[in-house]
Write a structure and sequence with these properties.
Length: 304
C-alpha cells in the first residue's frame, strides 16, 4: 500500500512544498506520495489524516490554528505558539514527542485511533536559517518584527527564547501586535524588553535606526498575493549595519531585499527557512535525515 502525507491549506496552487518533499521521499525510495489537500473546511483534510495509510501532514494558511481542536495532542512548542504546521501520527517516524500535550478533551473524535500530534517547525526552521544562512546570532540583539500573524508568533517566541535584548513588533492591526506582545511577556527573562508599535512611517523612523535585525513576517512582496511588488519599508528606514530577513520566499529577490540592498544592509530571503521547516517535518514523519541538498535543489527549481 502506498502511504501518504499531505499539505493542508487553501489555496495551495502556488505551494512548493509538494515539490521538495516528494523529492526527499523519492531520494530514499519510500513508497509515500505527498498529496495536496486544498480544502475549504479543515475537517475534510482531518478525515484524510485519520486514514490508515496517512503518516502525517503539513498545515499552512489558513488552518495552522483552526486544526488544533481536531488533533489529540500538541508538542510543547506548538502549544506555546498556538499554531501547528506539521502533524504526525502516533507510531510513525520519530513517533510522538514524549511530552505531546494532550488536547483530546477538545478533540471531536472519541473512537479508538492512532493519535495525531501537532508540531510547529516554523520556529526551528527560522532559527536554523538565521544562524546558518545569515550567520546571525540573535542573543543580545535589538530586533524589529514586521507583522503579527501566524508566522510572526513562531518567530517572536523563537527570538525571545534565543535571548534577544529587545523585540519591537510593528503591525498594521494594533490589536494583533498587542496580543502577540502580551503572549510573549510570559517568556521574558532578565532585562529583555518587548513592545508593540504603530505601523506608521514616523514611528518606524524613530525606532529602526537602533535595530540589528529586521524580520518581515507580513505578506507584502509575496508573488500571487495582494501585496505583490510592495515592500513593507523603504531603504531610507533600513540601517546599513542591520540584517534584513524577509520570510517571503517567492520571488527569491523580494521588493524588501532590493530596498535592503539599496540601504547597504545584508539580506536573506525566506527559501532557506521554508526548506528547513520542511526538513524538520520530514524527519518527524520518516525518522530519516532530511536530504537537504535534494530539497533545496527541488525547491529552487519549483520557483523558476
Ligand atoms: N519562509 C517560510 O518558511 C515561511 C513560513 C511561513 C510563512 N511565510 C511567509 O510569511 C508571510 C506571513 O505568513 P503568515 O502565515 O503569518 O500570514 P498571516 O497570519 O495571514 O499574517 C499576515 C501578516 O501580514 C500583514 N499584512 C498583510 N497585508 C498587509 C498590508 N497591506 N500592510 C501591512 N501589513 C500587512 C498582516 O497584518 P494585519 O494583522 O494588520 O492583517 C499580518 O501581520 C507570508 O508571506 C508567508 O508566505 C514564510
Amino acid at each position: 500500500m502506498t502511504r501518504q502525507i499531505g499539505i493542508i491549506g487553501h489555496p495551495l496552487k502556488h505551494s512548493i512544498s509538494p515539490a521538495f518533499q516528494q523529492a526527499a521521499l523519492d531520494f530514499y525510495k519510500l513508497d509515500i506520495a505527498y498529496k495536496v489537500w486544498d480544502v475549504e473546511r479543515v475537517e475534510w483534510a482531518v478525515e484524510q489524516l485519520r486514514q490508515p495509510e496517512t503518516l502525517g501532514a503539513n498545515v499552512t494558511v489558513p488552518y495552522k490554528e483552526s486544526i488544533i481542536p481536531f488533533l489529540d495532542g500538541l508538542a510543547p512548542q506548538a502549544w506555546e505558539i498556538g499554531a501547528v504546521n506539521t502533524v504526525v501520527k502516533e507510531g510513525e517516524g520519530k513517533g510522538l514527542s514524549a511530552d505531546c500535550i494532550n488536547v483530546s478533551i477538545i478533540s471531536k473524535d472519541k473512537s479508538p485511533h492512532r493519535r495525531l500530534c501537532g508540531y510547529n517547525t516554523d520556529a526551528s526552521g527560522f532559527m536554523r536559517a538565521l544562524r546558518e544562512e545569515a550567520a546571525f546570532e540573535p542573543r543580545g540583539k535589538i530586533v524589529a518584527l514586521l507583522g503579527a500573524g501566524g508566522v510572526a508568533r513562531a518567530v517572536g517566541f523563537a527570538l525571545v527564547h534565543a535571548g534577544v535584548n529587545s523585540l519591537i513588533v510593528f503591525n498594521r492591526t494594533a490589536q494583533r501586535s498587542r496580543q502577540l506582545v502580551e503572549a510573549l511577556h510570559s517568556k521574558v527573562r532578565g532585562k529583555q524588553t518587548i513592545s508593540a508599535r504603530s505601523w506608521r512611517q514616523d514611528v518606524m523612523r524613530r525606532a529602526l535606526p537602533q535595530v540589528d535585525l529586521i524580520v518581515n513576517c507580513t505578506t507584502l512582496g509575496m508573488k500571487h498575493g495582494p501585496g505583490v511588488g510592495k515592500s513593507p519599508i523603504s531603504a531610507e528606514l533600513i540601517p546599513a549595519g542591520a540584517m534584513v530577513y524577509d520570510l517571503v520566499y517567492n520571488p527569491p529577490v523580494t521588493p524588501l531585499i532590493r530596498e535592503a540592498q539599496k540601504a547597504g544592509a545584508r539580506a536573506l530571503g525566506g527559501l532557506s527557512m521554508l526548506v528547513y521547516q520542511g526538513a524538520d517535518a520530514f524527519e518527524l514523519w520518516t525518522g530519516r535525515k532530511a536530504p537537504l541538498d535534494i530539497m533545496f535543489e527541488a525547491a529552487r527549481k519549483a520557483l523558476e
